[in-house]
Amino acid sequence: MITYQEERERVVSHLIAGPLGQRLALVADKLERTAPAERGELLRVLDSPRITFTLAEAPLPGTLDGSLGQLQTRLADVLGARRQARVVADPASGRDGQPPATRISFTLGDGQVVIAAHSYPNNPALLPSRHLSLLTGYFLAIAVLALLALGWAVRPLHRLARAADALGRDLSGQPLPETGPREVRQAARAFNTMQRRLASYLNDRLRILAAVSHDLKTPITRLKLRSEMLADTAQRDKFLRDLEDMETMISATLDFLRGESRQENGVPLDIDALLSTLSDDLQALGGAVEVRGRATRPLVARPQALKRCLANLLDNAVRYGGGACVTVEDSAAHLILHIDDHGPGIAEAELETLFEPFRRGETSRNRATGGTGLGLAIARNLARAHGGDVTLSNRKEGGLRATLTLPR
Questions:
Q1: Do residues 258 and 209 touch, judged by C-beta distance below 8 A?
Q2: Global pTM?
Q3: Local structure of residue 88 (DSSP, 8 states)
Q4: What is the pLDDT of residues 216-252, one digit of tens each?
Q5: Long-range pairs for 71-76 at CB < 8 Å and ≥24 separation?
Q6: Is residue 62 within 8 Å of residue 88, measured between CB atoms?
Q7: Architecture of domain 127-258
Q8: CATH assignment of 265-407, given 3.30.565.10, 3.30.1600.10, 1.10.10.10, 3.40.50.620?
Q9: In this predicted structure, what is the pLDDT of residue 134?
Q10: The CATH number of domain 2-124 is 3.30.450
């Protein structure tokens, strides 16, 4: 406030110095052409509500700095150095928010000193408080308008970001409205075109995979029937085992390519009940499964897809790690399931490669144990289709940890 008032007084002093100096110069010229005895009467005629004149014996001390010092310098330039302009503030003025009045002295050619008491216009519009409130209002109005304009400009970007995030989980979502500025309409139109093309590609792939599945399973079924007719029991068993392996691999491959998670709608799912069902199934087959912790509330998910994801992770832990221990960590933002096994673990450099299709670990994870190398790849695809992920890490105490993270 003080800084603003000082700046305001400096500007006002600069603006009035010219007209005020010219008036004082005219008064000085008249007084110098008037007899000393008549000067008092002339000054009473020249008085005005804003400036009054008196005769004095000595000049004022003057001002060396500040806005008054600047005013004194400007008046000295207008009046001339010989008239010795001096400016001081009137200590009796400056009340009720008004700027202080000034007293100006100048010397005539014969040595007579004249003092002019000058006051600023009594205009409320010039008060610092009035200006400060107006400027504050202007700044607030500009800030509000800027925030509204910024929100209007970035709202389509937020909508586009949400649609892009949902696109990976559901290609059948509603298209973006193609409204707004030209650039926003172009971006929305391009996004909608991409979504339609991806959905069309996925539907074509599903139709092709359905045909491939039928074409492959039909000859396998015929081969099974013909193998049953073989007289050599040993050869018949070998044929049947090979055909079962082929059928398992084809089914797993088609499941991986089909992306089953896109076929279901999300529903509230009881994670504790799902884990209990899966652990009971594995224990019935001789597997050791332990569940620690509980989910605080149901999770919106695709039931069959999430069941397949968890089943693959648990089956890997039981089959290759000697058992599974599931730890449930639930929070407001995420549901995290840690699935630990008791196996030897995996080399750090190979952890990420195990998610590649048809990629298996060391010899303990070979096809003789029933593995196809697609379990982890399918689990990760299903988790990411839910907006989550699956990662692998080695535990310090030994064994492998698969972490399934799902957003709430």
A1: yes
A2: 0.50
A3: E
A4: 778 888 888 888 888 888 888 888 888 887 877 777 6
A5: 71/13, 71/14, 71/16, 71/17, 71/102, 74/13, 74/14, 74/17, 74/18, 74/21, 75/17, 75/20, 75/21, 75/24, 75/104, 75/106
A6: yes
A7: Orthogonal Bundle (1.10)
A8: 3.30.565.10
A9: 75
A10: yes
